[in-house]
Amino acid sequence: MGGFFMNKKQSFGFIVGLFVSLCFLQRAQGGELEMKTQFSEPSKSLTFDEKKTYQAVIHTSKGEIVCELYPQKAPLSVTNFIQLVEGGFYNGLIFHRVEPKFVVQGGDPEGTGKGGPGYTVSAEIGLPHQKGALAWARLPDHVNPQKKSSGSQFYITLEKIPYLDGEYTVFGQTISGMEVVNRIAKGDVIKKIDIIIK
């Protein structure tokens, strides 16, 4: 009979090869394999229920920070953030930048301020930078005239900073744990982030 046929040994080798080809090994620790998820810029936003609230609980080495997300004002930004959170992107990353009376910033997989998921997100500028604002970092105007947001790096403001208004996309606001934000130091860890829908 014609067609493609493999014996058991060939079939096993093919399956193993296919598995290795499809999976990118991030690291092996303690005998457990962790696979790196590939992320991409959201082309459209998730469907958000206007009657519900969306919150991010950021578990850090200093405690918990709770931020309300604003999907009605910044739908692509919130979609991107949720996508990264649900994929475990932020787990174990650090706050790589802490500027007193200004911001704490994290979400860079390299921990240098230069890394990200490999894409940017369209700007959704409009909300003000109140104390505790959750916003996307971005590259400066001379290389980024459209003010596109970083794909993953976010910051939380330590004070009200009006001169950032109109320049960066704010997509959430700290509603609990501001005392934790104030204690964040460079190198502190983002253990994980949970999305809560109420």
Describe the protein in words.
The protein has three helices and twelve strands; from the N terminus they run αββββαβββββββαβ. The protein is an alpha+beta fold and 198 residues long. The protein has a single domain (54-197), classed as Cyclophilin (Beta Barrel), CATH 2.40.100.10. The strands form three sheets. The protein has an eight-stranded antiparallel beta barrel. The protein has a two-stranded antiparallel ribbon with strand order 1-2. Strands 7-9 form a two-stranded antiparallel sheet. The protein starts with 7 loop residues before the first helix and ends with a strand.
Q: Class by helix and strand content? A: alpha+beta
Order of SSEs = HEEEEHEEEEEEEHE
Tally of discrete structural domains: 1
Weakly predicted, low-confidence segments: 1-35
Q: What is the makeup of the main sheet?
A: 8 strands, antiparallel, barrel
CATH third-level topology: Cyclophilin
Query: Using only CA atoms, what is the Rg?
Result: 20 Å
CATH level-two architecture: Beta Barrel
Q: How helical, in percent, are the residues?
A: 10-25%
Please report the first level of CATH classification, the CATH class. Answer: Mainly Beta
Spatial ordering of strands, largest sheet:
3-4-11-8-10-6-5-12
Share of β-strand residues: 25-35%
Total beta strands: 12
Q: Cα distance, first to last residue?
A: 59 Å
Shape field: globular
CATH superfamily: Cyclophilin-like
Q: Number of helical runs?
A: 3
Spell out the key features of this protein.
Cyclophilin, eight-stranded antiparallel beta barrel, disordered N terminus, single chain
